[in-house]
Amino acid sequence: MLIELINVGFTYMEGTPLAQRALRDVSLSIERGEFVGIIGPTGSGKSTLIQLFNGLLTPAEGKVLIYGREIGKDGIPPHLVRQKIGLVFQFPENQLFEETVFDDIAFGPRNLGCSESEVERRVRKALELVELDFNLFKDRSPFSLSGGEMRRVAIAGVLAMEPEALILDEPTSGLDPRGRKEIMSRLEYLHHLEGLTIVLVTHNMDEVAHLVDRLIVLNEGSILFDDIPRKIFLEAVTLKRIGLDIPQVTSLVRALRDQGIDVPVDVFEVEEARDAIFKYFKERRR
C-alpha cells in the first residue's frame, strides 16, 4: 500500500472560535501505479486531503501511512515523505524563482545533496518527461515562457525529486485549451509509460472521465463515493445536488434518453456515444 489513511480527521484553527472542520473520519488507500481522481465542491476538503498525503499537514485524528509506516512520530519523517510523494499546487508557476529553467528544476535535487552530474541527469530527465527540450530551455528564464511551458517547468521541478507518486491540484487551471491538452497528455504518459502513481484533483469532469482508473468524491469533509468513473457518473442526480457536473457526453446521452432515444447512460467517451446513437437508429430502420 503506497498511501493509507485510517479514520483521519482534520480541523483548521482547532480550539479557537474560528475552528473549521475540513475532514471527518476519512479512510482510504492508494496502491502503487493507480491513477486516482479526486473531485468535490468547493470546501469539501480536497486540498486538505492531498496535503495530508505528503505530510504537509498532520491529522488531528487518525493515521496517515506511507508504505505501512505512519508519518511522523516514530514512523517515516515528513521530509522523506515529501521526496516520495510529490505535490504540485494549483498555479505552481507562481513558485518559480530562479534565473534559469535549469536552476529552478535543479533546486530540489541540490537540496538533497546530489552531485552536479546527478543534478544534470535529473534535470534532463524531468524536462524530457514534460516534453521540453533540454538544450532549448535550460538557459532560458522561466518568466520568458508561455503559461503552459511555465506550468510544465514547475511540474518538472517536482519530477526531478524522482517521487513515487505525483499529486496535482487543478493542474490545468487557467490554461488555454492547448495548454490543458499538453498537461493532460503528459500526465497520461507519466502514468502509462513511466508507471508513476498519480492523484489528480480537478473540477473538470471530462478530464477525470478520460484519464483516471478510480474516482473519489468528497463532500463536506467525507467520502461520498469511491469507485470507477463509469459507476460514479451514474449518480448524476446526487452529483448535481452537491454542485458537481458530469461529463458533457454523459449529459448528452441523458438528454437523448429523456427524448425517448434508448442509449446507455454510462457513457462518457465521444466514440461510445456515437456508436450507441448509430446502433439505435440502425435498429429503428429495421
List the helices and strands and how they pair.
Blueprint lengths: L2 E10 L7 E11 L4 E5 L6 H8 L7 E6 L2 E2 L7 H7 E4 L12 H11 L4 H14 L4 H4 L9 H13 L5 E5 L7 H16 L4 E5 L3 H7 L2 E6 L2 E6 L1 H4 L3 H6 L6 H11 L11 H16 L1
Parallel strand pairs: 3-8, 3-9, 6-7, 7-8
Antiparallel strand pairs: 1-2, 1-4, 4-5, 9-10
Give me some keywords for this one:
286 residues, Rossmann fold, alpha/beta, 2 domains, 4-stranded antiparallel beta sheet, 21% strand
CATH superfamily of the largest domain: P-loop containing nucleotide triphosphate hydrolases
Instruction: Provide the CATH architecture of the largest domain.
Output: 3-Layer(aba) Sandwich
**CATH top level class name of the largest domain:** Alpha Beta
Overall strand count: 10
Largest sheet: 6 strands, mixed
- Helix content, binned percent: 40-55%
Roughly what is the average pLDDT, rounded to an integer? 93
Structural class assignment? alpha/beta
* Poorly predicted runs of 5 or more residues: none
Q: What is the 3D form? A: globular
Strand order of the largest sheet: 6-7-8-3-9-10
The helix count comes to: 12
C-alpha-based Rg, rounded: 21 Å
What string, H for helix and E for strand, traces the elements in order? EEEHEEHEHHHHEHEHEEHHHH
Spatial separation of the terminal alpha carbons: 53 Å
Strand content: 15-25%
* CATH topology grouping of the largest domain: Rossmann fold
